[in-house]
Amino acid sequence: MAHIGDLIAEMLAQYGVEYVYGMPGGQTTALHDGISRRNDRIRHILMRDERNAAYAADAYARLTGKPGICDVTVGPGANLLPAGFLEALNASIPMIGIIGELPLDWLPLKEKGIASQGFDQLSFFKSCSKEAYLVPSVAALPELIRTAFRVATSPRPGPVALIIPHDIFDADWDEDLLKIKVDDRSVQMPYMRSCAPAGEIAAAAALIKRAKRPALVCGGGVHGSGAAEIVTEFADKFNGLVVTSLSGKGSVPETRDYAAGVLNPLGSKAAIELIKEADLVVWCGSKVSQNTGMNWSLPLPEQATITIDFDPLEHGRTFRPTVALMGDVRETVLALGTALGDIPEHNDWLARISEVKAACDTDKAAEIASDMLPIQPPRIMNEIAKRLEEDDIVVSDASFSAGWISGYIPVKKPGRQFLFARGQGGLGYAVPGAIGAAAVRPNARIVTVAGDGAFSYTIGELATMCQYDQKVVNVVINNGKLGWIQLWQELYFNNVQSVDLESQSSVPGYAGAAAALGLLGIYVEKPDEIGPALDRAFAHDGPSVVEVRIDDRATPIHSFKRRLREKSDTPFPRPGTVYRLRDWKVSPDL
């Protein structure tokens, strides 16, 4: 007999959802029963941990633009979702969590788990979602599903919690509930597009034409708008510097002469140096977060600024722009490019960009060629880069992995081929993110890079990769420690505590664990073993783990490198330093 689980599965399929990531529970079994009758249109992927269901759905959403769907049961299932929800909320990723709940009339029994697994889920998810809804009746459910898709995809996108009581899940399905069709505008983000006013476009174009050293900073909003190709066309005629945030990597090909890589403390040294020399900075789909804004030292007081974002609250959050262009990134950049016409040549500026990049490339070449033992991570990244094909996807975990990827694996074409967990920056994203990515890109090779600390979070999901026979190469850069924290403690506290992940008598074997779970596992200790190991992994028809023993002193953070090199007593900011936002004032007119 048909039930409300059939209604939900049918609506998800009509919205074009191909996969739901999650873990069944007694209260949500109706949903899985409904999906099982529609496996030609929608499938469920069983995760080993509910936290990872949200990360997998996040990766699905980043690659498709559709809301990623995850499902969990009431109580212990629900309380594991917030890490992934906060990642999606802060990174503006559309997601819908279908969350089980106790029956409606059990409301007085939720407190303190009197009714098994009960707690106030609505208040809980209000704190980590764009919006959260408790479904009050069968009749209200279809409209709340439509609302969830609209809210998840509309500016700015984010996660929506849809909490469905057990008695509603199991109720009979009345097909009349589907008379109102799905809203095709909310199948994919952005829900609707808009463009900045013509007068502001003209003011921005005039500002760009007067600039001598213009710079363009591309954030994750470029990918959210599906604007990478349009932004690349704009950058080609911009005659200036182009850098990206981690989330914006892929907004332009990094093979272009004007592209200087990722602007971040663990990103490109050239980007960090050159951005300070610009007289105009165009912030395109970037919220100018702490890391992209280099602890909000950017923009400099003397720099004119243009901001492009569909969220009105971003035009002045940390500085007041000279010109604010409120609108969809793709539409606004198209209009701005048209308004610009011919742009003056900036030969001196382009020559300066080339000079700084060349000096940095010399340093990088030496790192890549290093035969040091233990292995230096740049050499690993270079070997990965050699083997990547045009449609392959790289999924980064948090911490140093993001820096090694961003600095040593270049983007060759516009588009979102690199996934970074920067909404929260929490460990444990790469493996479940790869599961979500592999489902929607079955013909591509998915590559993850994670430190041993991050990889430890999600070893259980290797069984998921194996079960679904996904083509994922997991590269574990193992230094035996929480590397970032070790160096932080050493440099700022002169003490190291609770960072060792192994002892002399107990050394975790991630490649061995992978082999035990049915994957191909390869362990690497020497530089000349990296290439052959990756060849085997890339050729393997299934998931693999390549564990590489690396130097525990290696770091992509330039300030850490400098401190380690200098070993000086020069004062430096203590942890917990409060960075004050610059006083509000209009950037100068060029």
TrEMBL record:
Pfam families: TPP_enzyme_C, TPP_enzyme_M, TPP_enzyme_N. The keyword Secreted does not apply. Its cofactor is thiamine diphosphate. GO terms for biological process: isoleucine biosynthetic process; L-valine biosynthetic process. Belongs to the TPP enzyme family. InterPro entries: DHS-like_NAD/FAD-binding_dom, THDP-binding, Thiamin_PyroP_enz_cen_dom, Thiamin_PyroP_enz_TPP-bd_dom, TPP-bd_CS, TPP_enz, TPP_enzyme_TPP-bd. Residues 4-121 form the Thiamine pyrophosphate enzyme N-terminal TPP-binding domain. GO terms for cellular component: acetolactate synthase complex. This is Acetolactate synthase large subunit. Residues 201-336 form the Thiamine pyrophosphate enzyme central domain. GO terms for molecular function: acetolactate synthase activity; flavin adenine dinucleotide binding; magnesium ion binding; thiamine pyrophosphate binding. Gene3D superfamilies: 3.40.50.970, TPP-binding domain.
